[in-house]
Specification:
The protein is 38% helix and 17% strand. By secondary structure, it is α/β, with parallel strands linked by helices. The protein has two domains: 17-88, no CATH class; 99-287, Vaccinia Virus protein VP39 (Rossmann fold), CATH 3.40.50.150. The strands form two sheets. The protein has a seven-stranded mixed beta sheet. It has a three-stranded antiparallel beta sheet with strand order 3-5-4. α9 (241-253) links the parallel β7 and β8 (255-262).
C-alpha cells in the first residue's frame, strides 16, 4: 500500500500549511508527543507521515508561542487534544477541487448509483474542514438528489465537526472555490449557497439535510451500513504504508460491493483483492466482492 508521494513528501507538497522558521523540532521531541498521546489517550499519531506531522506540530507551537514541554502538559486534557487534533489535521484547500473530478462523479457514478438503487449512501471520513462536504451537497442539491442521499461525515475532532455543522469556511478560500464551481458547469450562482460575514463564509444549513456528523477514530469503529461511495481524497499521502493498509482494510469492510472509493489524483493503492481501478487519472476505485 503506498502513495506516489510517500518517498518524496516535502513541505511544498503539503497544502494549507503554516510555515515557520522559529521552531525546528527534533525526531526525539516529535516522538515524545506521539508517545504521550498514544499512552494517555490511545490515539496513535506515530503512523502519520513524519515530515508532514512534524511541520504541523511546529506550526501549532509557533502560533501558540510555547514549546514541547507546555504542549505535553496541555495534552493531558482530552478537550485540548480535540483542539490540537483539529489544528494539526490537514484541511481541504478549496471547494470543487479538480472540477473535472466532480463532473465525472456526477455524470458517471452518483447518477448510476441512484438510478440502480434509488438512493445514495456516502461517507466522508476524517474531515478536518467542510470544503469537500459542501461541494458534495451542492452537487446533490443542483441535481435533485439531496433528499435521496444519506451522508455521514466523521472527524477525529469535535471542534472540526462543529465548524462543519455551522457551514464555516475561511474567506480566503472563497475566490478559488467560486472559480471551481463555475468550471463545474453549475447552473446556479455560487452566491446562492452562502453568506459572507467579515472574514468568514457560512453555507446555508438547509444543505445539510440527511447528514450525520460523528466523532470517530482514525480507524473507524462505527457501523454506517454498507456505503455506496467514500470520498477520501488527499489523505493517504499523510499516512505511513502501515496505516494506509489498515485504512484500506477498514474502508473495504464498510463499503457495499461495487461501491466506489475516490482518492486524490496523486494517490494510488495496492488493489489486490480489495478494489479495482476504474479511473486511474482521477483515482477512482470500485470495491470487489
Amino acid at each position: 500500500m503506498y502513495s506516489k508521494l510517500n518517498k518524496s513528501l516535502t513541505l511544498k507538497n503539503i497544502p494549507n500549511m503554516a510555515i515557520t522558521n522559529n521552531i525546528d523540532l527534533g525526531i526525539r521531541e516529535i516522538r515524545s508527543v506521539t508517545t504521550f498521546i498514544r499512552e494517555r489517550h490511545g490515539r496513535d499519531y506515530s503512523e502519520f507521515a513524519l515530515t508532514a506531522f512534524k511541520r504541523r506540530v511546529e506550526a501549532f507551537l509557533a502560533a501558540n508561542k510555547y514549546g514541547v514541554e507546555v504542549l505535553l502538559k496541555n495534552l493531558d486534557s482530552i478537550d485540548f487534544l480535540d483542539h490540537f487534533a483539529a489544528k494539526v489535521a490537514v484541511s481541504e484547500t478549496e471547494m470543487f477541487r479538480d472540477p473535472t473530478y466532480w463532473i465525472l462523479l456526477k455524470n458517471n457514478y452518483i447518477s448510476s448509483i441512484i438510478k440502480e438503487r434509488g438512493r445514495l449512501r456516502v461517507w466522508l471520513p476524517m474531515c478536518a474542514s467542510g470544503e469537500e462536504y459542501y461541494s458534495l451537497v451542492i452537487l446533490l442539491k443542483e441535481n435533485g438528489w439531496l433528499e435521496k442521499a444519506e451522508i455521514t461525515v466523521t472527524s477525529i475532532s469535535n471542534e472540526s465537526l462543529e465548524a462543519i455543522q455551522r457551514g464555516f469556511m475561511e474567506h480566503e478560500k472563497l475566490e478559488i472555490s467560486t472559480k471551481n464551481h463555475g468550471r463545474f458547469q453549475s447552473p446556479v450562482p455560487f452566491t446562492n449557497y452562502y453568506k459572507a460575514v467579515g472574514n468568514t463564509v457560512n453555507f446555508e444549513k438547509s444543505l445539510f439535510v440527511n447528514t450525520k456528523f460523528i466523532k470517530d477514530d482514525i480507524i473507524s469503529k462505527n457501523d454506517f451500513g454498507h456505503v455506496d461511495l467514500v470520498l477520501f481524497r488527499n489523505k493517504m499521502i499523510y499516512f505511513t504504508s502501515s496505516l494506509q493498509s489498515k485504512v484500506i482494510e477498514m474502508l473495504h469492510s464498510k463499503m457495499a460491493v461495487k461501491g466506489f472509493l475516490t482518492l486524490g489524483i496523486l494517490e494510488e493503492i495496492d488493489t489486490l483483492n480489495k478494489f479495482a481501478p476504474i479511473d486511474k487519472k482521477e483515482s477512482i476505485y470500485q470495491r470487489k466482492s
